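ok so I'm stuck.
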Amino acid sequence: MTSILTKTSEMNNYNVEEIRKDFPIFKQKIYGKPLTFLDSGASAQKPQQVLDVIQKIYAEEYANIHRGVYYLSQVATQKYEDARAKVQTFINAKSAHEIIFVRGATEAINLVAQSWGRKYLGNGDEIILSQMEHHSNIVPWQMVRDEKDIVIKVAPIDDKANFLFDEFEKLLSEKVKLVAITHISNSLGTITPLKKIIEAAHKVGAKVLVDGCQAVPHMRVDMQDLDADFYVFSGHKLYGPTGVGILYAKEELLNAMPPYQGGGDMIRSVTFEKTTYNDLPHKFEAGTPHIVGGIALGAAIDYVENLGFHHIGQHEDDILCYAREKIREVKGLRLISQADHMAGIISFTMDLAHPHDIGTILDQEGIAIRTGHHCAQPVMDFFDIPSTARLSLGLYNTKQDIDRLIEGLHKVNRIFS
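replied:
not stuck anymore, here's the structure
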């Protein structure tokens, strides 16, 4: 099993116990037990540095943006646009105009589906998804399919959760107008061979949209290197607040797309007869945005950049390898996640207990994992299971967290044996 990074030198600059002190939530106990948080794939915890920014803005610097000539509005506007520039640098986009603030990755995908999809897709056109997609990268395309009579095809995986690139290539033709693909599966942790997928799709003239929600907290992403046409992610998985996310899209595509929503700030002029739209990125940002969320996302980016993705990735790789080794000691446990290239996620089932029972018993031990279908029911159908238990790692997890999890899983077996 190969993970995000190959192990290199010792991580002299990464002290996880000191890093955990940045996260106030770890000071508390759950049912008298230390909090063992293994659900960062659903939503990550927030460092004090991000919480301080949120508090400061609301307490000292809050005002609406882009519309006021007064001091507070100018300060808030500048910080919001500075955050946009941080995102641009973070993913190496060519221009800040290519960074659209949205409520989350779900809205970003719906924006592309309803704006680009409704304009450029038509009868008989094909879209390729993968077997591993989150519902938010399936349902919006089904809605376009039902309106535009397009065809959705599914790129398969194998029984170890590897993406089958050769089978994907067989689906490509000039009929394919879009490939909508996850970077890292939220239910399995599989890392797709994204650059190869994008290159192959572009050879037949298809655009590529990437769901990067699970990738950006764990690894460096570079739009100039990947050459993705659209790339989306959510702030709350990147140690920022909920309610804010990012759509990256190439500028020429955004210029050609109609607005997704109408309202304030996305216009240049309005009469009852005609409206002219604003320039990028504002054309796609109707109404008052999540101002504090955008600025706080910038603070979260500062935080992870300060730690360094090399160190974060190497640490998480170490914890993931340790977890995969230790979890095999649990009797009657079936690993669903067994891909050759993985990051930060392990999904499993147990012979004696339903995933919801596993989660409930672990909760009593102060251990937080996710159970269910993880908004990826086609994955569950593929493996012929109703749900899984899933642990997902963050930059603050330790081997002690994994040891507590294993102890909890042994307790599950004792209770149900």
